[in-house]
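Fold this sequence, please.
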Amino acid sequence: MEPQTPTSRRVLVAKPRGYCAGVDRAVVAVEKALEQYGAPIYVRKQIVHNTHVVKTLEARGAIFVEETEEVPEGEIVVFSAHGVSPAVHEEARQRGLRTVDATCPLVTKVHNEAKRFAAQDYDILLIGHEGHEEVEGTSGEAPDHIQLVDGLDSVDKVQVKDPDKLVWLSQTTLSVDETTETVARLKERFPTLIDPPSDDICYATQNRQVAVKEIAAEAQLVIVVGSENSSNSKRLVEVAKDHGAEAAYLVDNAGFIQDEWLEGVTTVGVTSGASVPEELVDEVLARLAGHGFDDVREVESVPENVRFALPHELRKDLRVS
């Protein structure tokens, strides 16, 4: 990067950032359902973990509910990108709901791995955060075989039937470094623990963490745009702090930025979580420009061009399904 002058104020914008393919697919699924069938369209849980996205879809006629029992019989319900358990699918079927499954294909991959290992009578150590919707959905695929490992502090509590039939899987939105450390600790206890056939942490989570490491090395302050309930956004704050940034904050939008954060700062890094629309990043850049940070440079670390097809339910007529 070019050297900065002592008085310059610059912004380093991480690339890739923002929407991943799974989030884009889920949001478009709700939009397409609204276009094809009209409002209201019900959505179980937040379609993605971003306040702005949810409010925007609500304004168009989406109704967000916590459970399928809140959806009137016969209506259309969209399942969020985080996935649901078989029990939720069955409840929807019994109540005659027409469903659109917007589960991210990478989450579905983890579900399929869980089912396959459970069928072979493996104990499955699922590394993830207790209460997260993705963890609940994956656990529901094989509740008698899955044990949650919520960080390093949980490793010593793990009990297994047969250490020679033991595999680990993970939530897709975790810190890569933290997960690596947790797996290493698990393997100290269980040397025969096997790895999943492919990496469970999704490409977008990994790419955004690589990108924020690059800007954090040069930024005094890193601003991560994302909602408080977004696991991958919160991990970006942690990664930024661990890789050079003197301070890092999570903001839902530009209005959350505090002026005192910018005092004495000459380089600000900006990135966003995988469920954040680009317009929110633009608003942050405009806010920073108002404080003299008008030298904006995009720092690309990893090319990204993944796309997912829409849920198959939107390629047929739900009215006759």
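The two ends are 56 Å apart (CA to CA). The chain has three domains: 10-19+203-300, 21-104+308-314, 106-189.
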